[in-house]
Each structure stands twice: as structure tokens, then as C-alpha cells.
Amino acid sequence: MIRAAIPADLPVIHDLIRRLAAYERALEEARATPEQLQEALFGADPAAHVLIAEDEESGEAVGFALWFRNFSTWTGTPGLYLEDLFVLPEARGAGHGKALLAALAAICVERGWSRFEWSVLDWNEKALAVYRAIGARPQDEWTVQRLAGPALQALAAQAAPRAEAAPRTGAGPYNRAISHAN
Questions:
Q1: Per-residue model confidence as pLDDT tens digits over 143-161
Q2: Catalytic annotation present for 23
Q3: Is pLDDT above 60 for 177?
Q4: Is 64:53 a contact under the CB 8 Å cutoff?
Q5: How many CB atoms lie under 10 A from the CB of residue 80?
Q6: Which of 23, 81, 131, 174 is flagged as catalytic?
Q7: Scanning 20, 79, 95, 122, which has its CA 20 to 30 A from the CA of 175?
């Protein structure tokens, strides 16, 4: 069964994130705390969402998918970005991963979103085989770029000071968008 996560799932989500990080050989990089996840997933302005895969017989969580909305300037529509997908090793092969992917695809279709994207480690042959089987195609012409740590701090230090945004007045298109968002 696939269901949306609730705040009571935070310990399970945190544990699954740590297990994923260990599987991806990067446990030391998984520093998110349960408190950070609480705010990011269930706070006033959620940054991401989680689906939980449960074993049909036991009802125990056996996997999760953490996702957030992105946007394509080319299609003019939102999309879904899958940040994490993980199924416990002992539960693999029972269709939980595919069920999570299908549930995410359904969210895209129901909401009229044009894309469902994610990254995968190039050595994860089993995951790549699953993704090929469902029709996903690699975007070989693109490479992921990441700026973090000291390099992020150094570049940020080069930014010009930003002026505080002045309230917009008038009837221009930007003001209409702002007024309709409230």
C-alpha cells in the first residue's frame, strides 16, 4: 500500500533516509535531523512531500519516496522531482518501488504536470533496469552540478548586496499575480 506520510512517520522517514545514505555509500552526508524534517515536510510551508510504502501483511513501512515540485520554463508547467526513493533490501522485488513510482506519476497526471524527473547513481544497475522497464530515459546530455560547503559560501560572498524589495503598486501584470496569490 502507498500512502502519504503523516507527522507520526518522522522516525521512520529519518531512518529510511539514513539507510538510503548508507546504501549510496554517503552516510556521513546525511545530516538532516528529525526536527529539520518536521519543518520541511509538515511545517507551515512544506518544502517536500513523502509517500510511504507499507507491507500489505504487516503494515510496516518498507520504503519511501521524497519529492517536491519543480518548474519547467520550456513547458510552462510544474513538474515533480523525486529526491529520494528507497525500499528496504529485504522488501525489494515485491513491487513497492514500482508502486511508489506509479503513485508519483499519478500525482503528475492528476495535476497536469509535464515532467517527472530524478537522478540515479550510475553504478546502481538494479535501479537503472527498473527505470528502463517503466519507460524512463536518461538525459545523457545533462550533468548534475552541485555547489555546496566552502565553494557555496565563497560564491555567495561575491554577491552584490540586495536592496529590500519595494512593494509593487499599480495594475501591472506582476501586481495582479501578487494580488491573486494572497
A1: 888 888 899 999 999 998 8
A2: no
A3: no
A4: yes
A5: 21
A6: 131
A7: 79
